[in-house]
Structure formats: structure tokens, C-alpha cells
């Protein structure tokens, strides 16, 4: 990857705020709608459908908007997406009925599908090859902070005022982020696109330089989805107050927020690679899942949450930096959009796997199955990112990137 332009860390701050906005919107709205289910007249099925609309929009649209950002530039897609998010949030002020809230949720998801992958692509192009880990770590940390603060601030606003106060806050946040990006983020030049066929696209998205980091992202995000959904359930089954489950999730998000920048710096210094860091992380997560399965206890619950947070904090910046380092700039948006699609698949697949096995067998068995799958993903990451025997020695991920075929588009 060639570097377009380097900015100091503060110059990327508007992009961090964009990442915070999508995380805040996803989890903040979700927690408030869950708390207001009875008042809104939502059934559990209806709540699930409304919440899923955000993710459905992202799964369908992220690759499309990622590719669009390669054609028209990242900045207009980010600004347009943030403004769309603000408009969709204000839609809820018309009348907070189930239908209107569902449309607002769908609109927010569609808008986030635009500015989320475009923001990742802009971070990759602005950070500079030698600082990819550091700035992806900071970007991921701000998203994790949004996951932590979203439910807290959302519930506080809904209780202090009403449901519409949260949507006003989200609209203002998105509008401020859009203005800041428009004023402070440079308009990155659109790189000339090389001609490519459908077969080229298939080759690029099935190259192990793309598939393996995306699998690592999907696995770590699947663990996050399971933790958010099932740690509170485990706490309840242990006879603990509901606040303990919420506290465990807060521990997870806080640890992830703190670890991501540190992991990114270690990657840039050549002291950790995607291969070693991700494999060690996923094996650690598998051990924590197995421990929860065989020895559920308040201590193991909180300890596992901390391990999950550390794993997500390590895998996320390493995998994204690996993808960015191995992707030509003219395909950066498409790569980031497809990688985000992989994360969304993990976010949905992890809870679905655990839920299905738990329904057919038991929750401990389901956690055991996920532990085996997580360990398997770690092994696949170790094998898939191994350096070739003939590859020259190099520091950090550089050798690994070359040895795995140069990544998507690196042919």
C-alpha cells in the first residue's frame, strides 16, 4: 500500500468520532428499545426484528458503499453517511411508533453502512504504512467506547426526558461529526482504478491474505456478540443481580478500549504480528469460554469478560492493519467494506450458534462448542498467515503480507 498523506493523531480525530457515532447508535438505541419494550407495545419478536434492521442494512450495504468510496472518494461518503444518520435519527421525532422507530433504525443502519467502511479506508490511507496499527487501535478504541457509553447515556436520556431525547442526541452527534469531517479531513484523491473482471473480484476476496484476517475479525466479533447476549443470562442463572451482567460487559468493553491502541503500537514496532497476536488471543478466548462452561462462577464470569475484551482489543487492530497494509489504495474502500461484512457475519453467527446448541443441548455445551470453534479459528490463523519458507526476513507484518500473496488486489 502506498501512503497518500500522513497526519498527526489529532488530524484523524473526526474519523474516530465517526466510529464512536455508529457504535453509540447501534448499542444505545438497542438498549433503550429493550428497556422501553412494554411501553412501546413491542413483543419480544418485534423487538428482535427492529433491532436486527440495523445489522441487516449493514450486511447488505457495507460492501457497496465501500466500493463507492473508491470511486468518488472517502470524504463525501463519510459526510453523506453521517448526515443521513442524523436525518434518520430525527425521523423518530415524528411519532415514536413501532413503525417509525423501525424505519429510523433501518435508516441509521443504512447510513452507518456508508460512513463506517469509508472511515476505515480513510484511516488506512491517512495513517501511513508505519503507523497503521497505532491509528487503527485508536479508531477501534473509540468504537469500543461507543459500545460502553451508548447504553449508559441512552438509558439516562430516556429516563431523564423521553425516548426522543436519545434520537436528538444521536442526530446532533452525527451532524457535528459530519461538519468536523468536512472541515478537517482532507479530500483524498481518487486513485485510478485498474480494470477488473468478476473473476478478479472472486480471486481477491478468496485470497488468504484477505480471508484469514477477515475470519479472525469475524471470530472475535462473534465472541463479542455472545458475550453481550449471554453473560447477563449467565449472571442471572448464578443468582446474581442483573447489574453484574451489565458490569461484566462494561469490563469487556473497557479492556478492549485500553488494549487496542497498545496492541497497535506493538504491531507497528514489530514486537507482535497478526499471526502470533491473533492466534494467542483466540486460544485465550477458547480457554475462557471452556472455563465458563465447566466452572460458571461470578469470578470466572468477570475474568472471562476481561479476557474477551483483551482478545478483541488485540485482534481488531492487527487484522485491520494487516488488510490495509496488503491492499492497494484504489481498492481500500471495497476491502474494508467486505471485511466489515465479515465482522457482521460473526456478530450474527456467534449468538446464533450458541443459541441453537443451547436450545438443543445446554448452555455449557454451547459455550464448549464455541470454544472449540474459536480455537480452530486460531489454528487456521496460525497456518494461514505463516511466512513462506523462501520469504526474506522482515519485521512486523511485512513478511507475512508478502508471504500470503499480497492480500486482496495485491497480484
TrEMBL record:
<feature type="domain" description="Major facilitator superfamily (MFS) profile">
    <location>
        <begin position="11"/>
        <end position="389"/>
    </location>
</feature>
<dbReference type="InterPro" id="IPR020846">
    <property type="entry name" value="MFS_dom"/>
</dbReference>
<feature type="transmembrane region" description="Helical">
    <location>
        <begin position="140"/>
        <end position="161"/>
    </location>
</feature>
<feature type="transmembrane region" description="Helical">
    <location>
        <begin position="279"/>
        <end position="295"/>
    </location>
</feature>
<dbReference type="InterPro" id="IPR050171">
    <property type="entry name" value="MFS_Transporters"/>
</dbReference>
<keyword id="KW-0472">Membrane</keyword>
<feature type="transmembrane region" description="Helical">
    <location>
        <begin position="41"/>
        <end position="65"/>
    </location>
</feature>
<feature type="transmembrane region" description="Helical">
    <location>
        <begin position="240"/>
        <end position="259"/>
    </location>
</feature>
<feature type="transmembrane region" description="Helical">
    <location>
        <begin position="167"/>
        <end position="189"/>
    </location>
</feature>
<keyword id="KW-1003">Cell membrane</keyword>
<feature type="transmembrane region" description="Helical">
    <location>
        <begin position="77"/>
        <end position="104"/>
    </location>
</feature>
<feature type="transmembrane region" description="Helical">
    <location>
        <begin position="367"/>
        <end position="385"/>
    </location>
</feature>
<keyword id="KW-0812">Transmembrane</keyword>
<feature type="transmembrane region" description="Helical">
    <location>
        <begin position="210"/>
        <end position="234"/>
    </location>
</feature>
<keyword id="KW-1133">Transmembrane helix</keyword>
<protein>
    <submittedName>
        <fullName>MFS transporter</fullName>
    </submittedName>
</protein>
<dbReference type="GO" id="GO:0022857">
    <property type="term" value="F:transmembrane transporter activity"/>
</dbReference>
<dbReference type="InterPro" id="IPR001958">
    <property type="entry name" value="Tet-R_TetA/multi-R_MdtG-like"/>
</dbReference>
<dbReference type="GO" id="GO:0005886">
    <property type="term" value="C:plasma membrane"/>
</dbReference>
<feature type="transmembrane region" description="Helical">
    <location>
        <begin position="110"/>
        <end position="128"/>
    </location>
</feature>
<dbReference type="InterPro" id="IPR036259">
    <property type="entry name" value="MFS_trans_sf"/>
</dbReference>
<dbReference type="Pfam" id="PF07690">
    <property type="entry name" value="MFS_1"/>
</dbReference>
<feature type="transmembrane region" description="Helical">
    <location>
        <begin position="301"/>
        <end position="324"/>
    </location>
</feature>
<dbReference type="InterPro" id="IPR011701">
    <property type="entry name" value="MFS"/>
</dbReference>
<keyword id="KW-0813">Transport</keyword>
Amino acid at each position: 500500500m502506498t501512503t497518500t498523506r500522513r497526519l498527526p493523531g489529532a488530524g484523524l480525530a473526526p474519523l474516530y468520532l465517526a466510529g464512536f457515532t455508529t457504535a453509540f447508535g447501534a448499542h444505545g438505541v438497542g438498549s433503550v428499545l429493550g428497556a422501553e419494550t412494554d411501553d412501546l407495545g413491542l413483543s419480544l419478536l418485534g423487538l428482535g426484528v427492529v433491532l436486527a434492521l440495523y445489522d441487516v442494512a449493514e450486511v447488505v450495504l457495507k460492501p457497496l458503499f465501500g466500493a463507492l468510496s473508491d470511486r468518488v472518494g472517502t470524504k463525501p461518503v463519510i459526510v453523506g453517511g453521517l448526515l443521513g444518520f442524523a436525518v434518520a435519527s430525527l425521523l423518530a421525532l415524528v411519532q415514536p411508533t413501532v413503525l417509525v422507530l423501525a424505519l429510523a433504525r433501518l435508516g441509521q443502519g443504512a447510513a452507518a453502512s456508508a460512513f463506517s467502511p469509508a472511515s476505515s479506508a480513510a484511516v488506512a490511507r491517512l495513517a501511513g504504512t508505519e503507523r497503521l496499527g497505532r491509528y487503527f487501535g485508536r479508531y477501534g478504541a473509540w468504537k469500543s467506547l461507543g459500545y460502553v457509553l451508548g447504553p449508559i447515556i441512552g438509558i439516562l436520556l430516556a429516563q431523564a426526558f423521553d425516548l426522543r431525547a436519545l434520537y436528538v442526541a444521536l442526530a446532533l452527534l452525527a451532524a457535528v461529526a459530519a461538519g468536523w469531517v468536512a472541515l478537517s479531513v482532507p479530500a483524498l484523491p481518487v486513485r485510478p482504478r485498474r480494470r477488473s473482471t468478476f473473476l478478479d473480484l472472486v480471486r481477491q476476496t478468496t485470497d488468504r491474505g484477505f480471508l484469514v484476517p477477515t475470519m479472525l475479525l469475524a471470530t472475535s466479533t462473534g465472541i463479542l456478540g455472545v458475550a453481550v447476549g449471554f453473560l447477563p443470562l449467565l449472571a442471572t442463572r448464578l443468582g446474581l443481580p442483573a447489574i453484574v451482567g451489565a458490569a461484566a460487559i462494561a469490563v469487556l468493553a473497557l479492556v478492549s478500549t485500553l488494549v487496542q491502541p497498545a496492541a497497535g503500537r506493538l504491531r507497528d514496532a514489530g514486537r507482535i504480528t497478526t499471526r502470533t497476536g491473533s492466534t494467542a488471543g483466540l486460544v485465550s478466548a477458547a480457554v475462557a469460554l471452556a472455563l465458563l462452561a465447566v466452572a460458571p462462577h461470578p469470578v470466572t464470569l468477570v475474568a472471562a469478560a476481561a479476557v474477551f475484551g483483551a482478545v478483541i482489543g488485540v485482534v481488531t487492530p492487527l487484522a485491520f492493519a494487516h488488510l490495509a497494509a496488503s491492499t492497494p489504495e484504489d481498492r481500500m474502500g471495497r476491502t474494508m467494506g467486505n471485511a466489515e461484512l465479515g465482522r457482521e457475519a460473526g456478530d450474527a453467527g456467534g449468538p446464533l450458534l450458541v443459541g441453537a446448541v443451547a436450545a438443543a443441548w445446554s448452555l455449557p455445551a454451547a459455550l464448549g462448542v464455541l470454544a472449540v470453534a474459536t480455537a480452530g479459528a486460531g489454528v487456521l490463523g496460525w497456518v494461514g498467515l505463516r511466512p513462506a519458507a523462501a520469504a526474506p526476513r522482515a519485521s512486523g507484518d511485512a513478511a507475512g503480507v508478502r508471504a500470503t500473496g499480497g492480500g486482496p488486489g495485491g497480484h
